[in-house]
Amino acid sequence: QVQLVESGGGLVQPGGSLRLSCAASGIIFFLYDMGWYRQAPGKQRELVATITRDGSTNYADSVKGQFTIARDNVKNTAYLQMNSLKAEDTAVYYCNANNLRLGRAYWGQGTQVTVSS
Question: 50 near 35, Cβ under 8 Å?
Fold first, then answer.
């Protein structure tokens, strides 16, 4: 059974930081590209950042220089370090694992991030 379990969300003041974690089980983690997506109320889910199996990263323009994605293939965990948080970063953040060659993709249940004073 595949599980992606996000953690690390919460309430933070503007300018603060959070680190999200996505612990994967039931997959051969190092074979999967990992990504973080977010969905704000009333909006569509959008890509935040991705990291490939070989560690190449990609970011949405809105978070470049602010967020950093990383992965630990020993701990089977992906991370999203979020700095200088703004109110517009408020959303539910979802972890995604995908392998196009295998045609498989999985989602976590999401973790709420609220940026407010």
Answer: yes
